[in-house]
Design brief:
The chain is mostly helical. It is 39% helix and 0% strand. It is built from 3 helices and no strands. The longest helix is centred in the middle third of the chain and has 21 residues, at 44-64. The two termini are 27 Å apart.
Length: 110
Amino acid sequence: MQQSTMSIPRTRTGVRNLDALREPVLPWSGSPVQPPAQAPNVGKSEQSMSLVGGALLAGLGMARGSILMTLAGGALAYRGVSGHCQLYSMLGINTAGPAKMNQETVYRGG
């Protein structure tokens, strides 16, 4: 895990002024928050259908010798396993619902 440091402005009393920051930081270290590379944006039922449909399509493609069908099925199966859809990301669609907050509180400035 790569650590980065940043200069945090202080108040007149010498306390870290997290409200003056423009980017979210971790409260205990002051390090910038790294967003997940591929946050889930596909709902659970849609994930299940993608996984099953993708596996069937990939299997059918391999049986028929169709590379295109096999690749399409593999892409659908990957979408089902990972829970992330690149097309949804580009279009700003999220059927996974709101992201669950973990136990670490993130402070956001401004």
